[in-house]
Design goal:
The chain has two helices and two strands, in the order βαβα. The two termini are about 35 Å apart. It folds into two domains: about 45 residues, no CATH class; about 70 residues. By secondary structure, it is α+β, with helices and mostly antiparallel strands. Strands 1-2 form a two-stranded parallel ribbon.
């Protein structure tokens, strides 16, 4: 199996300056007219580009070697089970799924032996 490529940390320039403590450590495209990062000056650090993309075989693979799939409903989970190997993936329940359907998805995943990544204590 291929390994994921490493890439530099894509940071916001001057985000740690005293007057910018509110700026979170994350990437946003630079839009300033004279911004050195936008002009791709080497000393400002790397920018995300398509060259950092991983091969398709290792994309969306978690650190434990499993793929994670987003599920919105129980029928969607069952359809996924029919079309793929059971032991090869984990499930992430979508953010908008309510308490009752979340519990149903977790119960059916437990029966099938699938790990729910954001299952919580239930």
């Amino acid at each position: 199996m291929l390994r994921k490529k490493s890439h530099p940390k894509f940071s916001v320039p001057n985000a740690q300056a005293k007057n910018r403590k509110r700026v979170k450590d994350r990437w946003r495209v630079q839009r300033g007219l004279d911004n050195k990062k936008r002009m791709k000056k080497a000393f400002m650090g790397a920018e995300p580009t398509i060259g950092y993309r991983n091969p398709e075989s290792v994309r969306h693979v978690m650190q434990n070697g499993m793929r994670a799939y987003l599920v919105h409903s129980q029928p969607e989970l069952m359809g996924m089970l029919k079309n793929s190997d059971t032991g090869k993936f984990d499930v992430i329940i979508a953010k908008g799924v309510g308490k009752v359907k979340r519990r149903q998805i977790m119960e059916s995943a437990k029966k099938e032996g699938i790990r729910v990544r954001n299952g919580g204590k239930e």
